[in-house]
Amino acid sequence: MSLLLLKSGTVHDPANGIDGAVRDLWVQEGKIVAPPEVPTDPDQVLDLSGLVVMPGGIDVHSHIAGLGLNHARLLYPSANLPLPSVTGRLYAGMGYTTVLDAAIAPLAARHAHFDLAATPLIDKAFLILVANHHYVLSLIREKRKEELKGFLAWLLQATRGFGIKLVNPGGTEHWQQSRADIGEIDASVAGFGITPRQIIVELAAAAEHLGLPHPAHIHCNHLGVPGNWETTAATMKALSGRRAHFAHIQFHSYGGSPADPASIESRAPDLIELFNRQPALTADVGHVQFGPALGLTADTPLAHYLSRLTGRRLSTSSFELEAGCGCLPLTYKKNKLIHSLQWAIGLEWLLLVKDPWRIALSTDHPNGASFAAYPDIIHLLMDRDYRKSVWKDLHPLTRERSVLGQLDRQYTLQEIATITRAAPARMLGLANKGHLGPGADADIAVYAPSSDRRKMFALPRHVFKSGQMIIEREEPRGDVWGTLFHVTPLFDSHALAPWREWQRSFGTIAPDRYAMADEELRGNRTPVALAANHPS
Ligand SMILES: [Zn+2]
Questions:
Q1: Cα–Cα dist 118/33, whole Å
Q2: CA of 433 to the centre of ligand 1 (A)
Q3: What tens digit of pLDDT does each residue of 20-48 get?
Q4: Which residues are near ligand 1, the ion (C-beta closer than 5 Å)?
């Protein structure tokens, strides 16, 4: 039981109210422990005087596993998407130690687990796509609420998922049936006769009743379309106080007319006002950076629209019962109005949201940019002059259509620690993550302070994963395998009988073949099942 003392670091631990105080941290068996009550000699001491110490970074919305990435690697090798073995090293190399993949089709879960098992150094989990799933939609239509809860609980257990993801609720199915975009959230989904509103409200309620640690994670209808802020506002209001997480909110904050792409403007301030007043909602930003990126989305109508717009090849896979993932390359350019505005709107969100506990840093990797852009985005948030130097080169209309130029706020290190560590841990319901109090997992990032925040956050001095040093003096060292988090909500097996019958009648895969066996998770070493069904 080797005892490690990390001595005299300048600690930023927002969850425990420590803001830049010099503290010692004691680590034993992969956990932070309370300082010994009697004088004790540690087995190892590392002096962190003058260095900044934070919990390991946590990404609440990324795409690091699954078939869509493989299609992208085949179709677009120039996009240089890292292989799983490299993904883990790149994240850990920035001091990130936990990553959530936000969109896995239930039938593709097995493949995703193999990718995650090949991803070293970080802890991981994924969300399963359910908002265009035929059986889910039919249960909502027929108001079979108990069966809906039972089915979702079973599906999460079978696929070893962590939570549920709503991508363009009902809209993908509507497009597949009619080749038309879904209307507002009260429009009817072709073939089902229910509305996006019903899907959103019922799934958010089911996630809450199941006591999932992370609430329904929503990618709203009409991503990227001018005027979509009204859909996003209607979705926020539809939830009427329920917990929910809004994915890559930047992409859903546009004014203007859908018929005229040149009319696009920021309506982020209006949405943020609404968001500030609904404390049960959280969001990740989905910031874009100028340069190459890769569109990777389960929103098939959107992928198809972008492919027509750019003339780039599109790969899209659909699974029985539920949409899969499409991919196509993107390039964000400063001289394009829409891209300039997207860059500005992400920063508007980060700078205007009052409570940093409710917003998380993300680029929706690889959609807005690679996760490797995080240090540069931190620099944009902490250094107003740097931000203004980029702002002045943007498309000239951006100045009239975004308030970013008027925002002087600069983030503190404590606020950065909040949006990249403490808040994401709380959003995901991971009680042992995102803080440095006794009982926390000893996932720790140590940075050398510098006014060049990009450099500071790109190259940590040391990183610890579960108490093991994996970066020492900026060099990789050691090989720790991360854990897989999944949930095990309880369900009544009677509620599942109709699903088994339905799957036998309409499906090509026997219901039990959905389920992952324990031995199939072997690569993930000690998966951690989190209990759900806590009274919420
Ligand atoms: Zn995403």
A1: 30
A2: 22
A3: 999 999 999 999 999 999 989 999 999 99
A4: 102, 364
